[in-house]
Amino acid sequence: MYQDKSCPCGQCQKLAMATVPYQRWGELYDWKTALCNGTIFPDLNFEFFAAKNMCCSFMNGNCSRREAMRCEIDAISFALNDLTLYLDTHGDDKQAMILFGKLKERRCELLSEYASCFSPLTIDSIEDVDSRDGYFSWNETQLPWEGGVC
Predict the structure, then answer these.
(1) Which of 47, 62, 59, 43 lies closest to 150 in space, CA to CA?
(2) Is residue 129 within 8 Å of residue 115, measured between CB atoms?
């Protein structure tokens, strides 16, 4: 180990030095696979542990319409979050910005459709349901985090 001479106590040691290559745009996972792997970028998917992913049953087509819609919303939302992190460091990447716009639009469509069919999932989708019902309906059904999945 290398003894760090700049340390005032004289006891510090440098264990390693890391280099991080600049990420490049490349092939992307489909959104469901990305959600299960924790990234939309296959180049960033490093399996440190051989653990089984607990993805929603949407992956194998074994779920209700409500659950399938929620899983698609989760997958698109995850992809948007991962893409946002990429754009934080690659703000001039036109491909990434175009994809961001498409995913954002798709997420809004899905949230609106889900709110119309079941209940609003976000504060942004309350208006769609409330204008139809004429009152604030956020608490009318169990939300996913309260067990309202099916």
Answers:
(1) 62
(2) yes
